[in-house]
């Protein structure tokens, strides 16, 4: 009996001593260098919430802020590792947020797309499919454009330059009736004005509340940034996540609308279903329709 009791005590001690290390790390994150000494496996390392895991060129791990991550990659202290990010969705989202909020990186992204017609085509076609599956994505793109006077005029010009869109508008009875209607003021008028939502745009997303503080990092090596973006876009899983992340946030689409309106609208207007949805949404947007009427009256 005594031996049996000793056996249970010994078993309990062994069980405590061999609690999986990763469980203890999950409860209380210790510095990555200490985790590295005990585990020596980058896939098992954890970081505190809000930090991103980077493996430096010397192999040592570091948990840094998303901004610091980008600076370290830019300066060559480490490289973007898609495997690390794909296994840590929260970290990837934090990094995407910083990527999409940085004007320099978005310029790199635009340049990369413009210099690679195939990538541009594949990306825009993917966006079209996502917008057809989720109507809110279409609103997130059109909202920033139709809410800005200069972007509205640019969009109107793109519509005029698109033969299929122009023909669709001419054949759309509600559109033709509306463009010849009187200017919309404070809800007074006739035709499309009757029963219309009092707001200037009842469907436009409140993208101002989504917009993040725009950052700007002075990168020293644009090739490293382009290489990181390239690795993200050629990885189907990461590129899909990045596309959806951007489409979900109207604040990010403000910058994209300004930089890449032509290709975006072109692919949208090429699709019959999206073309009809665009027309319906524009008919509900008082500012946009007033811009059309003002142009027609000149």
Q: What this model shows, in words?
A:
The structure is a single chain. The chain is mainly alpha-helical. The chain has two domains: 31-101, no CATH class; 119-297, no CATH class. Helices cover 68% and strands 3% of the residues. The protein is built from 18 helices and two strands. It has helices at residues 2-17, 21-27, 32-39, 66-74, 82-86, 89-101, 103-114, 117-133, 135-146, 149-161, 163-170, 173-179, 207-210, 222-234, 236-248, 250-270, 272-283, 286-297, and strands at 52-55, 61-64. β1 and β2 form a beta hairpin. α4 (66-74) packs across α6, α7 (103-114) packs across α14 and α8 crosses α9 (135-146). The longest helix has 21 residues, at 250-270. 26% of the residues are buried. Mean pLDDT is 77; it is low at 6-28, 186-198 and 209-213.
Q: Beta fraction of the residues? A: under 5%
Cα end-to-end separation:
103 Å
Number of domains: 2
Query: Helical region count?
Result: 18
From the alpha carbons, calculate the radius of gyration and give it in angstroms: 26 Å
Helix-strand makeup class: mainly alpha
